[in-house]
TrEMBL record, chains A, B:
<feature type="binding site">
    <location>
        <position position="210"/>
    </location>
    <ligand>
        <name>substrate</name>
    </ligand>
</feature>
<feature type="binding site">
    <location>
        <begin position="160"/>
        <end position="161"/>
    </location>
    <ligand>
        <name>NADP(+)</name>
    </ligand>
</feature>
<dbReference type="GO" id="GO:0019877">
    <property type="term" value="P:diaminopimelate biosynthetic process"/>
</dbReference>
<comment type="similarity">
    <text>Belongs to the aspartate-semialdehyde dehydrogenase family.</text>
</comment>
<dbReference type="GO" id="GO:0009089">
    <property type="term" value="P:lysine biosynthetic process via diaminopimelate"/>
</dbReference>
<dbReference type="Pfam" id="PF02774">
    <property type="entry name" value="Semialdhyde_dhC"/>
</dbReference>
<keyword id="KW-0220">Diaminopimelate biosynthesis</keyword>
<dbReference type="InterPro" id="IPR012080">
    <property type="entry name" value="Asp_semialdehyde_DH"/>
</dbReference>
<protein>
    <recommendedName>
        <fullName>Aspartate-semialdehyde dehydrogenase</fullName>
        <ecNumber>1.2.1.11</ecNumber>
    </recommendedName>
</protein>
<dbReference type="GO" id="GO:0009088">
    <property type="term" value="P:threonine biosynthetic process"/>
</dbReference>
<comment type="subunit">
    <text>Homodimer.</text>
</comment>
<comment type="pathway">
    <text>Amino-acid biosynthesis; L-methionine biosynthesis via de novo pathway; L-homoserine from L-aspartate: step 2/3.</text>
</comment>
<dbReference type="GO" id="GO:0050661">
    <property type="term" value="F:NADP binding"/>
</dbReference>
<keyword id="KW-0457">Lysine biosynthesis</keyword>
<keyword id="KW-0521">NADP</keyword>
<dbReference type="GO" id="GO:0009097">
    <property type="term" value="P:isoleucine biosynthetic process"/>
</dbReference>
<feature type="active site" description="Acyl-thioester intermediate">
    <location>
        <position position="130"/>
    </location>
</feature>
Amino acid sequence: MPQSYRVAILGATGAVGTELLTLLAERSFPLSGLKLLASAKSAGQRLPFQDEALPIEAVHDQAFDDVDIVLASAGGSVSKAWATKIVEAGAVMIDNSSAFRMDPTVPLVVPEVNPEAAAAHQGIIANPNCTTILMNVAVYPLHQVQPVRRIVAASYQSSSGAGARAMEELKNQAQAILNGQAPRPEIFPHPIAFNVFPHNSALNDLGYCEEEMKMVNETRKIFGVPDLRITATCVRVPVLRAHSEAVNLDFDAPFDVEQAREILGQAPGVKLVEDWKTNHFPMPIEASGQDAVLVGRIRQDISNPTGLELWLSGDQIRKGAALNAVQIAELLVQQNLIRSAKQPVSVQA
Amino acid sequence: MPQSYRVAILGATGAVGTELLTLLAERSFPLSGLKLLASAKSAGQRLPFQDEALPIEAVHDQAFDDVDIVLASAGGSVSKAWATKIVEAGAVMIDNSSAFRMDPTVPLVVPEVNPEAAAAHQGIIANPNCTTILMNVAVYPLHQVQPVRRIVAASYQSSSGAGARAMEELKNQAQAILNGQAPRPEIFPHPIAFNVFPHNSALNDLGYCEEEMKMVNETRKIFGVPDLRITATCVRVPVLRAHSEAVNLDFDAPFDVEQAREILGQAPGVKLVEDWKTNHFPMPIEASGQDAVLVGRIRQDISNPTGLELWLSGDQIRKGAALNAVQIAELLVQQNLIRSAKQPVSVQA
């Protein structure tokens, strides 16, 4: 009989939390128990899971004592606040926040890219930033064949990247503008409907925003190339769900475009979307709800003999967050990397 | 008494045509007559100009005989069909279509960049592609100080770049989606509301679309650098008006970012929009209706010691088309480059 595991979702009510619930069911994760944790204000509510309506508990000091895996998606401060309790309880925390991503003792894992990194965990594994994950899934298969030397990325990021309320804000503002009214920004600093603006995360002294630096630093860590040259411009666009990216790659030597297409056509987590006749390439409306990162428009860069251009769209809530976290959990199961699983786990009473 | 000129607008009823009317009035262009030309189906209609309602005439063989300047914005096939008649009539055609842009005998002019090119005209001057103009206005002032070696651009292009009907399609689709209905693509091949997709112009054998090749080839011609290395990814976004671009620049040597900021702060046609404290940078909703190309987020490229990153938004109907054409007309006036103006021009009877 295969082992099964007790999983807790910390931040069960958020966009990623509910997607985690969907994925655990869809992928038949070997559960012996599922605990939904959230802030006190959500406690007592219930969320559907398979044929049940699971209660939400307020997170508390003993909440992790009977848990093997914690999927945390309640933001950096919540992850930081509970990490020690989770680790002390013997559970593994798969953390969707940015809190521990750059911690050298914490593996930062995209299962299609660096599954081997998970083995070194000391109780916490970090789930990378959504924009980073999508780009890494598309670029790493090429990098394996011929090292990438420099990446210039421009993103087209959907509203739901800033949460469910931001997605509502986009809809409300769009309706207001269509009615001839002025849009009222609340979540975003600027109107998002029928507009685009550079990603509004905090800017560093060099003028890069946090989102851009995540793409730079996390990719370096995941690829294991600390000095990989990466620059990015992250931009919000009025799309409800799924991020897109224009990615310019420079390699050590020319990369045959047909070979690149073949590699990406077989790469794990990638779906090639390239119909040159009908001008049909990856689009966020088609990436939404899909597991795969849609990749296409693979071109020889005409400005650089060792360059390639590609275009991708991926569901940032799914592969960019919840799916990647569940895949990490599956990896832990497959490789027997769940700490408390060393003791036999009984099905929840 | 200053000379004045007889101007015809060919394609007066289009988005660019009506903007031309607005600009000729706004900028007090020295008119001695203004003739509105369009296809037979618009003939007889009137368009407001200053305090008048000017009649629209169907274009015909003798339509240009009493005209000094033709501002053509009715598409490539119309421009090609009438160019000979216009030139034979002694008028100068400022053509907004792509028909003659790459013709070596036709100057391709952005007045802030290469005004000197206009002097060599033989009756036709081409107005560049909108995306090209916006980028050129922002990049050329830097290129003058230190030659740019390579440009990697990603565009965020509004619906109105595909015409007024495409803009309506965006609004209609947005309303449909907000009502829970499926969007119906008619002008664009894919839904544009709450979506993005690579620019749907024809693709060449290398996988570059026409819009991208315009940025490449036209910039080379305007800058006078036939082998300038440029790559671009052009993308439609659900914005009503004004295009944005993420532009990565590589120079012959390091370019001090403060110097770049100073140069662009004083560059003709550029308005610096950079409030790092409030994360306020160029946005299409603020660029709409403005003459200037809004430029900001000027950063040292952290992936390249000789690189800079910048972000821009500009009104593609105004500076990207109609304004640039009127500026070319003004340049012809200032430099006495209007052919029939060699004879005294009398005010229209």
